[in-house]
Amino acid sequence: MVRAGLTPERLARAGAELADEVGFDQVTVSALARRFDVKVASLYSHLKNSQDLRTRIALLALEELADRGAVALAGRAGKDALTAFANVYRDYAREHPGRYAAAQFRLDPEAAAASAGGRHAQMTRAILRGYDLTEPDQTHAVRMLGSVFHGYVSLEMGGGFSHSAPDSQETWTRVLDALDALLRNWPAP
Question: Where along the sequence lies the DNA-binding region (predicted)?
């Protein structure tokens, strides 16, 4: 049995891998115990329950996404930054569908405050500074971008765009062009 070296971090990473393989909704402490060929009880010295495991996977996914976003945004502004940031989300969802689903997991207020979620908002606001938006328009735009990115990626991953032409990449490019145009010409209140 592989008990040595089990830590909450190692279990979260293994849970994230499992989520990518079978779906985030299928990840439980029992499934993770089977993966390590240990008894469920042996994992409870590292995890409180399945909710704790799912929270840890969500925190890991948010951190990975934030790290990728920071790298993608370095030295970019305007449409170039918007496109790079949007592509981080889309690429991450394609590479890690279970982790991407975990990044949408509702966290309790304490976990959310300690998560990389704040970094995501900061990066989005940094992009928006290139469009000269002020409050409350900046908050509206942060919500709009998150909704469009997540909505498009979710529909695409669910096969929603695979039944007709044009190709999904062409539409993605047009969506990002439209967002850029909208942000450059943000409507006055």
Answer: 28-47
Burial of 9 (0-12, 13-18, 19+ CB in 10 A): exposed
Task: Provide the 8-state DSSP code for 38.
Answer: -
Instruction: Decide: 72 and 87 in contact? Cβ < 8 Å.
Output: yes
- Report the half-sphere exposure of 15 (CA within 13 A, side-chain side): 34
Residue 1 has pLDDT above 70, yes or no: no
pLDDT tens for 53-71 read: 999 999 999 999 999 999 9
Contact 12, 59 (CB under 8 A): yes
**Ramachandran region, residue 159 (left: φ > 0; alpha: ψ -120 to 50; beta: rest):** left
Go through the chain and tell me how many residues it has.
189
Supply 159's token pair.
Answer: 């096969």
Counting runs of H as helices and runs of E as strands, what totals does the chain give?
10, 0
Task: Supply the pTM of this predicted model.
Answer: 0.91
Burial readout 67-101 (b: 16 or more C-beta within 10 A, e: otherwise): ebbbebbeebeebebbbbbbebbbebbeebbbbbb
Tokens of 116: 């990389």
Strands (DSSP E) found in the chain? none
Please give the pLDDT value at position 44. 86
> Which tokens belong to 131?
């469009």
